[in-house]
Amino acid sequence: MSTHGSRGTGGGPPAENAENAENLDYRIAHLQDRLASGELGELGVRVEARGRTVLLTGTVSSAPCRDEILRTVHEELTGLPVHSDLVVSEASSPDHAEELS
């Protein structure tokens, strides 16, 4: 996971914008630590600051995994708009036997 952010994009004075961006970067870093060290051990999710919005991208193993990640994200980033582009790559067992020749 990596963090990329835009700084100074808000409407307040430059010092306030820098403080808000630093706070957002801190919150994103804390979220990344929590995702990586938590029960899921999720390292395939990227968390990026896009202005005042947070973007999640990546591939997860199942829908319940995605739901748990989103729950964690909303706990850590309460009050911030979050856009999720998480893809579920749930592998299902085949419905028929493969014929080999």
What would you say this structure looks like, in words?
This protein has a 3-stranded mixed sheet, with helices on one face. By secondary structure, the chain is an alpha+beta fold. It is 38% helix and 21% strand.
Give the key terms.
single chain, 101 residues, alpha+beta, three-stranded mixed β-sheet, disordered N terminus
Write the layout of secondary structure elements.
Blueprint: H1 14-37, E1 45-50, E2 53-60, H2 63-76, E3 82-88
Parallel strand pairs: 2-3
Antiparallel strand pairs: 1-2
In short:
The chain contains two helices and three strands. The chain is an alpha+beta fold and 101 residues long. The protein has a three-stranded mixed sheet, covered by helices on one side.
Question: What is the end-to-end distance?
Answer: 43 Å
Poorly predicted regions: 1-10
Strand count, sense and closure of the main sheet? Answer: 3 strands, mixed
What Rg, in angstroms, do the CA atoms define? 18 Å
Strand content: 15-25%
Strand order of the largest sheet: 1-2-3
Mean pLDDT: 79
The topology string of helices and strands comes to HEEHE
Helix segment tally: 2
Count the strands?
3
